[in-house]
Amino acid sequence: MQEIPDGERRTETARLEGFSDAVFAIAITLLVLDLKVPPPGRPGLLGELLLDQWREYLAFLASFATIGVMWMYHHKLFTLINRVDRTLLVLNGLLLLGVAIVPFPTAVAAAYVRHPDAKVAAMFHTGTFVMITVIFRLLWQHASSRNRLLAPGANPRVVGVLNRISAVAPILYLASFFLASVSPLGSTLLNSAIVVIFVMLIP
Amino acid sequence: MQEIPDGERRTETARLEGFSDAVFAIAITLLVLDLKVPPPGRPGLLGELLLDQWREYLAFLASFATIGVMWMYHHKLFTLINRVDRTLLVLNGLLLLGVAIVPFPTAVAAAYVRHPDAKVAAMFHTGTFVMITVIFRLLWQHASSRNRLLAPGANPRVVGVLNRISAVAPILYLASFFLASVSPLGSTLLNSAIVVIFVMLIP
Amino acid sequence: MQEIPDGERRTETARLEGFSDAVFAIAITLLVLDLKVPPPGRPGLLGELLLDQWREYLAFLASFATIGVMWMYHHKLFTLINRVDRTLLVLNGLLLLGVAIVPFPTAVAAAYVRHPDAKVAAMFHTGTFVMITVIFRLLWQHASSRNRLLAPGANPRVVGVLNRISAVAPILYLASFFLASVSPLGSTLLNSAIVVIFVMLIP
Amino acid sequence: MQEIPDGERRTETARLEGFSDAVFAIAITLLVLDLKVPPPGRPGLLGELLLDQWREYLAFLASFATIGVMWMYHHKLFTLINRVDRTLLVLNGLLLLGVAIVPFPTAVAAAYVRHPDAKVAAMFHTGTFVMITVIFRLLWQHASSRNRLLAPGANPRVVGVLNRISAVAPILYLASFFLASVSPLGSTLLNSAIVVIFVMLIP
Prior knowledge:
4 copies of one chain form a homotetramer.
Chain A: H1 6-30, H2 46-52, H3 54-80, H4 86-101, H5 103-111, H6 118-144, H7 156-180, H8 184-201
């Protein structure tokens, strides 16, 4: 990339953030398409059928919350990052790929929730989160190591917190991935718990 | 959250508004996927089939209008709010969750419109609006009580109007929720009437 | 609506434009979901099946072009409008409703293209455009009559051109609506021709 | 188009970019709907079924990467272009049409990946990329020839690089189009390789 003055660089970040925000917002809203209308059948059954889908709703909620908290941290990162290089562009592209894919494993997890293969489906679901958090870690590491792309006044305490959280996140989701091989429901609940912790730790 | 100067805080609000706007816009536009093409059958029937879906159209319109008016009020709120804290972030996330879900209960209501369980479906549909307006109330209460997150020059008259409307909205939708258990159509019409009132009362 | 200083009014317009742009962009992109993958069948047939869908593609293109040109004119309008009142908010909401619905009549037109009811489907499709252009005319009339919501320096020549085009548009689409009752294909082609004319006339 | 002062012209570009960004972001995120949940069947099969879809994933990835890199270059172009005329508006509309369509040929390619007609499907898929890159070339040629719409300070080296890349892109995709008639998989892999090269060459 050519040398560009500081003003244009900020614009560069702005449009990258805008595009990323749009992908986050679309992916999080498309998740609703994974919720299926129970096929009309015997009268008096609908209430029961809707309640019976609680595991599908949990899978939806875990994905919604995960994309939401990813957006919050992405947002936080880009209050510190003020330059863009090719590697950041590629890593951000991979991150968006991960986020945009989420509706698919969520649909798989929801479709197999009552099937003997529910464990595999849950591993596929949580595995996507492992992948996303690994890319997130790489992106942050690239941007922050030796302050490569950080704004001059980036708060070192915030940088430190993001270092630790981005390192721990893939480990937590990996634990949840293995938990899924035993208990799909346990994994979905752990995923939601991870999100709550992340929201509370946001610097 | 760390202490941040006023300028950055405004930016913080701006990106939250931008993300919220995108979710509102996507959810409101995705509703169209709930309108189903009548399966091609006997010639000469299409006009009738399309007209016959008027209750599905009403369910769609009620959801469209409700998300639309929610956007207007959300927008109005954020002309008064100029700071973001963690609780606001979480409540706004829950609000977006409610808005993003709307296409699902709308689809349920439309699919069951001619089914004996239409009442349950309509309660599910209107129940979502109850939930959304309750979260909206909590969000506004958090932001406005003791001017916690309001801009210094926030017009007290407007704040007062929003206090009253946000308190009344869940009650109106709750009434419509109970009406749905008797008359799904009556509930849908009441939902639309509520929206008209809210548009007229917007300060 | 309360009295607000000029600066905030511009912001008000900006967020309305942003929300409208998002709905236009989502509706225009959702149209692709109306294009159906031919169900895999006898080998060697796919090329033919894809070519055979040319009328479906035309219906898609007419909708895409119409939403696109609507966006261009909406955009042009809001370079002249710099105030927002409740009526504008409501009319703009109705316009977005019309735009967001377009994928539904397009799907109907595409699904019935080879069915005896193709004429009814085409009338439903073009009828939506009549409705949208009527709302567009009302919106512009409200904003421009006696310069109600126009910026002080609004170019009178541009205002005049928009007056004439917004008045003629519903008439052209109405002609196409009646043409659809005779020739669905003729109507779709006329719709495309109307768009070309509108693009050339954009002031 | 009327004569407009420089400030407004920049705004004009800004809204065009914003609308284009939204269409790019929606199209890239809608691609996920092309990934299909394997219908629940015999227990123990899900892992295999998911792995078995690797060619569908590749088709998805090729489309995702292509739209992504198109966005990057579109973005780069509009750091150089600072005026809008009718031809640019139309060519940009055609470009967005191409981008918005991508989920359809991707779905065709994915649905026919194990069918004897996979070659035709792959040609349809890659043919869309040929079309998009041709429009891209025309757009850039119109904007840059005799600096028609370029900003005064546009870097001649960057302009030169974009000239060459936009001229070569359609040729590369045309080669991949013909490759698809022999090897669908080879064509999909070549499409991905082209994207990698384009990312590395971005000026």
